[in-house]
Amino acid sequence: MASKLIGSLLRPRAERIVSLAPSATDTLIFMGLGAHLVGVTEQCDSKEVRDCKRVGAFSQPDVEKICLLRPDLVLALGRIHSRVVDELAQRGVAVFVSRPQSVMEILDDMEETARLAGQERQGEAIVNQLRERVRVVGKRVSARTPVRVFRLMTEDPLVAPSSKSYQYDAVRVAGGLPFPLASEEPYTTVPIQEVVDFDPQVIVSCGRKDGEAPKPRCRGCRAQKPPCQRVVNDIRNWEGWREITATRDGRIYAMPCDLICRPGPGIVKGIEQLAEWFHPR
Around Cβ 220, how many Cβ atoms within 10 Å? Predict the structure, then answer.
């Protein structure tokens, strides 16, 4: 389902914006539109919004707190915010719902966000620079044989992005052959034997390198094993993973959340980093 604006802006441009996702917050700041933000979630961690009003958790934003801020526009993500979007629509609040399934759709949504904020030309110029960076990566890796890549998210259960996810597309754009996972859901569980049979040459994992300090837990995180705190070097010792080519060759990499888990401007830098891992110069 494509991204879309639900409802209508009550003025020519959105001057008061509430962001329900760190990726949307990152987008506004990256495009010089951070001053439009009047509310963000607890997980929006950019230093520029340290003093901004909080409207609850990313996964459970508070509709009452949102409405008290009198926003012209709320920025939401498709599936996770469907309940909130319905409630806001009933109250006449305009919501731009982003549902990107590819890298280019992320960039299109960034451009649309700038347009809604009345900065169409500025947004177009900035996003075109990002598109050019993606094009440069694509040109560099186009003559190289794609390497088999497994993008590891959670481990218990084992979850990876499907072909409906922009993360899957990011791996492909960077010159990788993503683990073939067809599903209507963007992320789904995977049997370990299928990963072994695929025999990835590269594993891209959430987490950190050996010796790096663990990332602080996000507010409200209750996960027993947060993927962002995983030491990726330990993967080689997991049962069933020792004989995988990526494990034997030591090609297991930790990717920061803001470069792959968020459908925002960081994805372009993430693609550039993936390309360097997949096809070193």
Answer: 13
